[in-house]
Amino acid sequence: MDRQSPLDSMESWFEQMSKQFETAADRWGTGIEPWGEGMDQPRIDLAEDGEQYTIVADIPGFGKDDIEVYVTDNTLAIEAEQREEMVTEEANYIQQERTHQSLSRRITLPSDADTDDISASMADGVLTITVARVEPLDSGHQIDIE
């Protein structure tokens, strides 16, 4: 009688795991690639001057009606979702990838950001958000030790 050892199938098991890791790496990336089609976070630039913060986000392919910008608990959220209508006429697609696209990004605002004074504009796939700055409520003070 021929007994099968658990070690006999170990090589095929490692090959299967290796293929799964390669598939996952192809799908998710290594984490160091820049944002590109199919990824879920836009790249941003955050700048400041004495009066405001400016956030510029690249959101190609989205219109301003596809995008929501809101603030909750001093966190600025950018969310976008776009659904393409499926073609109902007879079509012989070889590949169809444009049916749904979404992204989101959360940015913690600095403590001197005025969350009541925020504006946003969109042009050519670039979202620009300005957040006014306020003077800190308390600049601090010395505490005497008893």
UniProtKB/TrEMBL annotation:
It comes from Haloarcula onubensis. Signal peptide: none annotated. Belongs to the small heat shock protein (HSP20) family. This is Hsp20/alpha crystallin family protein. Pfam families: HSP20. InterPro entries: A-crystallin/Hsp20_dom (IPR002068), HSP20-like_chaperone (IPR008978), Small_HSP (IPR031107). The lineage of its organism: Archaea, Methanobacteriati, Methanobacteriota, Stenosarchaea group, Halobacteria. Residues 35-146 form the SHSP domain.
